């Protein structure tokens, strides 16, 4: 089984740093997934070429999907195929982890109607965006609900560690403190 790392323009590289390290320490195979085959440029300018796309990857081979935040997630608001892909991964009973602004993608996929979550948006921003189920919002650094993990961006170290524990990986969490 593999962990899919979804890459899209302006993804936050630092939010993935500890997660990628934990996955590497835990010998977890990683597949980087793009919306298409084009290279992706992160918010700090890191250029990445995904190894697969949301159309090519076999969701049955994923035990986890990681969704990084980005500096303007609104550019993904009409990516219907992306939301369908996220729903497919959830239906396969895989772990889904979203940090910072990325729970927006879970909301657009309809997943936050049944899961508690946190997100890096204020109440006013969530209201303005209009896709979040406020009844399930928890104002906490990280929220785990079943196989779904959400976190605020500043807690990327805890996010990576919690994800490693959810995947039952063998890694040294003290490495990041």
From TrEMBL:
Pfam families: DJ-1_PfpI. InterPro entries: Class_I_gatase-like (IPR029062), DJ-1/PfpI (IPR002818), Prot/Nucl_acid_deglycase (IPR050325). It comes from the Bacteria. Residues 4-160 form the DJ-1/PfpI domain. This is DJ-1/PfpI domain-containing protein.
